[in-house]
Amino acid sequence: MSPTTEDGNQRFNDLLSLTPDWYWEQDEAFRFTYVSDRFRELTGRDPRDMLGTRRWDRVAHNMTDADWARHRAQLEAHERFEDLELCYAKAGGGVRWCSVRGMPVFGPDGRFRGYRGLTRDTTERKLADEALERTRRRLETAIEAGRFGIWETDLVARQVYLSAGWSEMLGGTAGPTYARLEELTRLSHPDDLPRLQAAQRAAVRGGTGTYECSHRVRHADGSWRWVFSRGRITERGPDGRALRMTGTNIDITAEMLARQSLREKEAELRTILDSVPAMIARIDRDYRIVYANRHYAASAGLTADSIAGRPVHEAIGHERAADSEPWFRRALAGETVTFKRMRTDDPAGPRHFDVALTPDVDADGHVKGCFTLVTEFTETAKAQLVLRDKEAELRTILDSLPAMLCRMDRERRFVYANRRYADFLGVAAESIIGRTSAEVLGEERASTADAYVERVLSGQEASYTQVMASPAGGSPRHFEIRLVPDRTADGAVRGYFRLTSEFTDTALAQEAIREKERELRHLLDSIPALVARTGMDEKYTYANRSFAAEYGATPDEIVGRSIVDLIGPAFRSQLAGYLKRVESGETVEYEREMPAVNGRARQFHVYVAPDLGGSDAVRGAYIFGIDITERRAQERRVEALLAQVTRANEELESFAYTVSHDLRAPLRAIGGFAEMLERASTDVLDEQGLGHLRRITSNARRMTDLIDGLLRLSQLARQPVARRSVSPAALVTEVVADHEAEMAERGVRLQVGPLPGCYADPVLLKQVFANLVGNAFKYTSRRPAAEITIGSATTPDGTTYFVRDNGAGFDMAYADKLFGVFQRLHGENEFPGTGIGLATVKRIVERHGGRVWAAGAEDQGATFSFTLGG
After folding, report:
1. How far apart are CA 519 and CA 536, in angstroms?
2. Above 60 in pLDDT, residue 213?
């Protein structure tokens, strides 16, 4: 080989050593004939294993048979190819992504000789893309959740992010915050916690990965608040283990308290009705008993629970039911009717009853049944007494009702008013009887009900709402007022009943909901994104200000217009495939460049998500557009910076190699000549001179060790961290096995405690344990009874691993120097070493996001502890 050729080959090999890619060559049958040593550094495999094989002989996870067929067709056509992306499984777990580019090679005679090209490891870029995707999903979830309480749980680190709304819901400080999962668990009500945890575990293990649960949490003021919690698994590891859960919490305290109050009121009303000495029942349109008080059920020989659902004829008999049917029909037609009945089947004699049927009308005015009130008046005297008693009882009941009730005649004079109504007016009930509503309420307030009073006096029911304050003082309150005709026995309207029910809390709750809706619209108008919704007819039903401004319009001008109106038929045709996928329930995304109103082109990332109804049927679509113009520009800047950093690293690596090569040569010469001089001068030099030569040789070897350690430390900074599930116990077993002979010789007492699994790079983690355990053996070498303990502990930072010994120890005043490069607290004559081992430990631990520290005392041993972060 000529010097010129040899020099060219050397320059080519130097160039290959500096590039982050590995170089390869293939023959005309596409078999590898050469693979550069860079392949060994990046993959850990011998390049010679590739010789004679073809690219498709190895299984690539992302390539199908059709993909390989297209690639082979490209090679057989002798075409240049670039950016062929392949995904291979790594020997230690995980996957490695590679980008391949190649070009055909032809001989001087024009005959095809094969291919040559470069392959680049793109695994880190892929991981960065996946991290960006996770960030996008979290943003999308936050937008969907609105201003409710938002949370996100890192299930591995057991760290929980709480949005400002969730923090405020708990009575905490304003703004988002972070908390440990255990802290939030302690806030849950002990009666609800098992149910909540069961729902969360089912979500973690189940196929859907979602859960919903209502439970109580403790507020900062010590009270319990009801929340409706909904969550879903948003990230899983390669092994399927849940890593991250995201969700929302809604304060439903008011709703739960309202339900409880309703149940209590219903129980109270049933108690009242059961105490009334009359038979009361509620009948539906099919003449079935919906409810009966204790007296009504007892008259049929049944209990109140067993009579419910039975036909009326089973309770009062077929004959009486047939006689009463005309009256029931009138009541079901909307008329309040009364009639008398007599029973002759009682051995004590005839018994007389008054029966009143009142229509049961729903909020829409439809009669859904009737109320039956049956009272007995067997003897006139008894009837009068019962009547007085009933009247008193009825007044008591009406005074106890949670509503204001009064009875008016046709001239709008008060005939009756219950205590709650009189209290609202601030007067005694007796003082308003016989007075008109205008005299009691005032002309202006009374006149607001004129239209409704005219309607009820014509025989129709009427209802309306009104906001008013008590004449006795106080803030305005919300009321629902219902007017029901008061008819005589012959059906003539002689006045009306006025039932006034307060719903201030409900009204305030509704106003709060409307306010939340306004806040949500304000939020959507404030976020730096385009937001819109379309129906199944592709017409816009909502657009925020940013979306409308992008088209030079207002939100109201966008609503009602179609997609074609805004983007044109050509672009609508391009989106046809996406819209079909959305109609099938799938969320799609794409990027588009669109000119703004001012003419400056911008790049948007668009998400289109289906709007699912209660039955999961698609009823429209949500459109979210995020301006990524600046991000794309930033990415280009980052790529340029990465290129600069890559060049700097390549130059640094070349410098380190050159320095180490240039230093080793003279050190080898010094050491070699010193040894030669020692052998040749045994008879010439005295013991002191020979000692000097031995120290020269020893220091040359030590200098070589320092250079090698410094190079290994430098290479560690560039080695990628390939995390996966690791068993530290297995790694420690391998490390300890290397010291078995020394343990047996010295009688070292070694204890290994529990070492929980973790998520780390197994090769680097083994190096950490090897360095720490090796230090323990080294610094206990002068102990007649050496003791070494390897174990772990649970701390607020997570799992902490440690290596403890009873060796030489150190002065804590110099603890900060332990992990520095070439920093040693003991002389070479005491304990040999380079001072790089602990610096290597610190570099590995910090690259895992953890920290390492040491504690000890002189001649009392030392403990080295470390964590691995998330």
Report:
1. 27
2. yes
